[in-house]
Task: inverse folding
């Protein structure tokens, strides 16, 4: 019993949060049961004190419409990926050297190996590499990645010549927030 008296005596000394102090300072509502009262217990909340559920005060400032514009260089492959090379990779239907493999950084700072099947998106247009075509690997040789984002290959022309041609993959491929390689928006 003596312990209980000490604890009760210390209660006003213990630190209180502002919410606890506010709730203790409020006058108690009547606990007499009425026709609409289900329980004699009363719940106090900050919502009651602030006037809720009344209409919120409207700001005189007009809200501006926000437009979200993705900066074209925000997630370029060259800025978030390194050690890019052409490989067989782990992609189904991949022909030798037709897969772009990079070590890409996630938004959380981790690196992992990402793959992209280029033979479904890159083609040979008379000795020139082009995007949104396919099967350039049948008429191109010596595929390699230079400067971490440029695909360089030797591709056949209709006259039999085989010039060296390049395609900047930064314009078409990006790394998403999980570090996966994907087609940039608008180039599907």
Result:
């Amino acid at each position: 019993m003596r312990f209980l008296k000490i604890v009760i005596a210390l209660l006003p000394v213990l630190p209180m949060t502002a919410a606890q102090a506010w709730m203790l300072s409020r006058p108690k509502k009547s606990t007499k049961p009425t026709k609409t009262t289900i329980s004699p217990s009363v719940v106090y909340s900050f919502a009651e004190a602030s006037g809720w559920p009344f209409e919120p005060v409207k700001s005189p400032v007009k809200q501006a419409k926000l437009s979200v514009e993705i900066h074209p260089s925000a997630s370029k492959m060259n800025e978030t990926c390194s050690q890019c090379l052409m490989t067989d990779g782990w992609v189904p239907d991949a022909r030798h050297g037709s897969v772009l493999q990079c070590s890409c950084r996630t938004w959380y700072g981790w690196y992992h190996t990402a793959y992209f099947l280029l033979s479904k998106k890159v083609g040979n247009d008379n000795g020139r590499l082009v995007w949104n075509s396919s099967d350039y690997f049948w008429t191109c040789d010596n595929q390699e990645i230079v400067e971490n984002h440029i695909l360089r290959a030797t591709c056949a022309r209709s006259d039999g010549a085989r010039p060296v041609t390049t395609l900047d993959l930064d314009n078409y491929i990006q790394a998403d927030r999980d570090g996966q390689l994907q087609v940039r928006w608008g180039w599907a």
The longest helix spans residues 2-10.
